[in-house]
């Protein structure tokens, strides 16, 4: 690297170059996320970093599945200096760092197929209202012996400690690694199913959190591989156990003021918050394809588990789609709504985008949520639920596709490119899934038919 190269760079670039020299960084991985939420990476040497910071890195977007069309092949990955972080699991000498990229066309315009760009656009719309969108995800996942052997490592349950929680050391190392990368963790614990775990990231603005969620998934897998096991974010890997959700705490702030808080309202929930909740309930069927994008996702959204099935909300019931966590006296900033419909295999950039858009649409239209469902809705008969106007989430990937395809809001929020690409990809997945003959069918039907 020429000695005067940093002097020609903007201040934020100088910070990155200085950090690389200070920590003996020899390689920088440039990350970005495709439409389905898969992390992509290309590595450059430290000598190429100044050019990459200034000009971005050109690549063939059409070679990435479900990303760019053939006539949109020439793309540029532009590193975001604010996302610079060392990768702690790489060697301590001649270290490796990473930066997350925004994707542009060769002309310099943002690429409309970039999920990070989709979220940026939605946050800009919120910013024009003077609002900042904060999120805090609770990310669930499983540890297994290997990807070919989904045998749990333990028989632990919710909040269990060792010796039942065989993976507590894995979880601890994962949390320490995330914090070393500047990602704050609020809680981590064993979840309800055998070998199922949860890491709760401390809330922050949605773009920073989407970057953190993608990083968290990679770190979980890297630490697992290091210890000879396999970590999976598959929504429903075990037939008779709960699946892995990603519950997300949501709030809107105007400066330091929490727009969801009202001291004198029931549950201290403002009219703005109530309309935001109403928007989530109203538009969830249209965006479930984003928050639950795999055919397997709908095995999790089933009765008899803690996953939501009905479009309901409450202050106490943990099986509702939206829950209002308990208010902490003297802490108005803690007032929030918890959206429980997403799973851990979603694309967080798109998931946060559609949640925000649905909530803002509810605010704009001054929607009112239905009465909270404080009882167990699953115990009601279909006729009783119909009388109360209680509807269900999409029951399958096919149902979710139909709702998504008919949604003007989704095409507006995601943009035509992402909307149509998701639709095309998921229709192919659904047809392939429907044509498969499963082990269950062979066991159930072959001996008797």
Structure description:
The protein has helices at residues 11-22, 49-55, 115-128, 168-180, 206-226, 271-291, 297-300, 348-364, 382-387, 397-405, 408-434, 439-445, and strands spanning 25-33, 39-45, 57-60, 74-79, 85-86, 95-105, 132-146, 149-152, 185-190, 196-201, 204-205, 230-232, 246-254, 257-258, 313-314, 322-323, 337-339. It is α+β, with helices and mostly antiparallel strands and 449 residues long. The chain has two domains: 6-111, Glutamine synthetase, N-terminal domain (Ubiquitin-like (UB roll), Roll), CATH 3.10.20; 120-131 and 224-442, Glutamine synthetase/guanido kinase, catalytic domain (Creatine Kinase, Chain A, domain 2, 2-Layer Sandwich). Strands 7, 8, 9, 10, 11, 12, 13, 14, 15, 16 and 17 form an eleven-stranded mixed beta sheet that branches. Strands 1, 2, 3, 4, 5 and 6 form a six-stranded mixed beta sheet that branches. Helix 10 (397-405) runs antiparallel to helix 11. The longest helix has 27 residues, at 408-434. It is globular. It starts with 10 loop residues before the first helix and ends with a helix.
Low-confidence stretches: 1-8
- Name the average pLDDT: 92
CATH H level, superfamily name of the largest domain: Glutamine synthetase/guanido kinase, catalytic domain
Instruction: Count every helix, treating DSSP H or I runs of 4 or more residues as helices.
Output: 12
Count of individual beta strands: 17
Estimated structural class: alpha+beta
The share of residues in helices is 25-40%
Q: Please summarize the sheet with the most strands.
A: 11 strands, mixed
Roughly how many Å is the radius of gyration?
23 Å
Provide the domain count: 2
CATH architecture of the largest domain: 2-Layer Sandwich
Query: Order of helices and strands, N to C?
Result: HEEHEEEEHEEHEEEHEEEHHEEEHHHHH
Shape: globular
CATH class of the largest domain: Alpha Beta
What is the distance, rounded to the nearest whole angstrom, between the alpha carbons of the first and last residues? 72 Å
Strand content: 15-25%
CATH topology of the largest domain: Creatine Kinase, Chain A, domain 2
